[in-house]
Amino acid sequence: NCVKCKKEFGFKEFYVSEKIEKELREELRDTQEKWMKEKEAKERRARGSRGVASGSKGGEPEEEAVFVAGLSDTCPRCGETGFRKTDEQIEHLTLCNDPLKIRAHKRKRERDNAAASKKQAGASRQEEAAAIAAWRFGGSQSGELWRLTEGALRGLAGEEGLETGGNKEELIARLAHNINVKKSGFLLGTGDGSDMSARGGGIQASNISADSVPKNMHQMSETHLRAVCASHGLKIPKGKSSKASLIRLIEGELYKTDDHANMFLENHEDNGDA
Length: 274
Fold this sequence. Notes:
By secondary structure, the chain is an all-alpha fold. The chain is built from 10 helices and no strands. The chain is extended and about 75 Å long. It starts with 17 loop residues before the first helix and ends with a helix. 19% of the residues are buried.
């Protein structure tokens, strides 16, 4: 029953053929990969914006310069809008010194920023929950862990009683080892599995296939390619961490283990990615 209205609710189950289920899994993989690439692009733009901001004075002086140049019609001090000409904005800013209006606008901006941050955090949690659900629907494969965000990976690590610190690559290695250990029928020898999972513990790397790697690795960053390697238990040789080296490492392992790898690599060459 619903905790609010107390009405009964539920979900109906329908039979789905193996073919349709396979198609759904492939569609989910494609959706997750597209989402991951979009998220990565947003992260790059955000880093670029922070870099530009760090190279300038930032804060109110920069906002005032934008306002005076006519690129914004909102006064950065009091929040007044509706200016039609740049001259009006310059004149307004020169006379804008009412402390009550300035404090009120500052408090409003702080509230708006807090609300936006809260909304963004809620959206991120929903995205992470959806990504985890899709990963589990796909069989909870260690080779698919790279598709999850760092926040989702920390949540999974916490559920498994594993260490939740470290970067995305370390979290994936820890979780992948834990998954492979369970599938192998062995018990972790360290109590919480944190040390062994970080090293790999001698457990064989998970199977790699054309379905478990990105469709176009050349569009991904080194960070995400390292995550793909960690998902498949691939050890990155010292000094071989460039984007091209990581792609060769992944494709080399794929060629050795996947019967369909030749077709996969030929598609890369046809697309000019080789």
